[in-house]
Amino acid sequence: MRVGMIAPPWFKIPPEGYGGIEVVVHLLVEGLIDRGHEVTLCTVGSSSTRASQLNIFDGEMKDYLDAPPSSFLNIALTHALACYEEIPHDEIDIIHDHTWKEGLLAAAFIDRPVVHTVHGPFDEENVRFYRIFTQVFEGYERVHFVTISDYHQRCLPGLNYAGTVYNGILLDKYPYSEEKEDFFFYIGRFNEEKAPHLACEVAKELRARLVLAGKVHEKEERAYFDEHIIPYLSSDIQFVGELAHWGEEKMRLFSRAKGYLYPIQWDEPFGITMTEAMACGTPVVTFRRGAAPEIVVHEGTGFVVETMDEFVEAAQRVDEIDSRACRERAEKMFTAQTMVDGYEHIYETVIANEGVDTR
Question: Are 322 and 348 in the same domain?
Answer without folding.
Answer: no
